[in-house]
Amino acid sequence: MLAAMPPPVPSPTPAPGAPRVRERGDACPGALRLHSADDGHLARLRLPAGRLTARQVEVLADAAEALGDGRISVTSRGNAELRGLADGCGAELAPLLAEAGLLPSPTHERVRNIVASPASGLDGLGAADVQLWARELDERLCAAPWAAGLSGRFLFVLDDGRGDVTGLGGDVTLVAVAPDAAHLHMGGRAVRVAAADAPRAALAAARAFLSAARAAGTGAWRVRELPEGSGLDVRDVRKALAAEEVPEAVLPQGPPPAPGPLGPAALHVLAPLGRLTAGRLRALLPADEVRLTPWRGAVVAGTDPARLPALEAHGLITRPDSPWAGVSACTGRPGCAKSLADVRADAVPGRPGLPVHYSGCERRCGHPHGDWVDVLAAPGGGYLVDGAPVPRTDLAPAVTTARTAPRTTR
Ligand code: SF4
């Protein structure tokens, strides 16, 4: 069933210390449930581990041009969004995506939220190839009828041990700690499982969350929303899989791969302000596969890194010293009615340094994780840079200072 949804009404904010009570299911858009925005309808396409085959790259680029505004937004979970879709276009979009294998389960399309270390298996780093885990987890997820009851926000994170995606706030996080072993983290505890069992363990953990959420009766969408004492316990997974608890397990933290070559047959590029034109997406081919990343770029596997200058000529960010590396923005005007400004047109990079995110309102949609510079549109046409008022014409020096000056962690 295809449907365009009006903007969601947020659930009431809980009193301090009180559990959040969700009175409805989440309103996250999907590929079948479109969101109505000021610039037309929006479709969000879940791509487990950000993965697109070469054929799927072509189909997505064609769909953006034929049905949308010709661009593909890369989300902070490595998913793809099409915007500017006309009324009734869902009837054309869904068969296109399904035929390309991008809609394996209509009932589960919004719950396929799986982020995995994008360079896994390509650059010799990491303890295991978690891209393979992501594929198995996705297949198991889509085959489990109960899993359709997860919210569209519930997130699986699969890190190959380098720590590049552990900071994304997964509800269930798997970390490869050896070629044959993984730690499964959920709700502040961890168990050790065999690598061969890791995808099955992640699914068992999600099921334990759903049981706890139903028992609590608060409609929680995510693990952190469960009330204290809700009964969720990663030890349920331990019992199911004969896994051993890991006291005081720590999530590894590491930087994302830099734009540029990734081993002998892969490369990493970033999309300016997180948007690819259909032409830029196609320019990533030929390749074995393209993995959209949580840093709003693409890891391209099975390609020659010598193509990087050509990709730069296409307008993609290919070097870590590009001032546009680490610059992101929310949708802003004209796509979002809440925005005070056309933040994408106003965005300036300043000099390379900390990530910087431009927002049209205080929701700060899609902001980065960790430490970053906050540029927020203010009434009257100016901005707040980390809270300090700055006229729009003075943004460049203010953003340079904020990105490069020593600071305490946010
Ligand atoms: S941060 Fe505000 S203005 Fe920007 S997309 Fe989100 S709701 Fe719209």
What does this structure look like?
Helix 1 runs antiparallel to helix 2 and helix 3 packs across helix 4 (198-216). The protein has three domains: 3-245, no CATH class; 265-313, no CATH class; 327-404, Sulfite Reductase Hemoprotein, domain 1 (2-Layer Sandwich), CATH 3.30.413.10. The strands form four sheets. It has a six-stranded mixed beta sheet with strand order 1-2-3-6-5-15. The protein is globular. The chain has 410 residues and is an alpha+beta fold. It has helices at residues 54-67, 90-99, 130-143, 198-216, 235-241, 278-283, 308-313, 343-346, 395-404, and strands at residues 3-5, 33-37, 40-45, 51-53, 71-74, 80-85, 114-116, 156-159, 172-178, 181-186, 189-194, 244-245, 260-261, 266-270, 275-277, 289-292, 297-301, 327-329, 356-359, 373-377, 383-385, 388-390. Bound molecules: iron/sulfur cluster. Iron/sulfur cluster (SF4) is lined by residues 330-332, 336, 338-339, 359-361, 363-365.
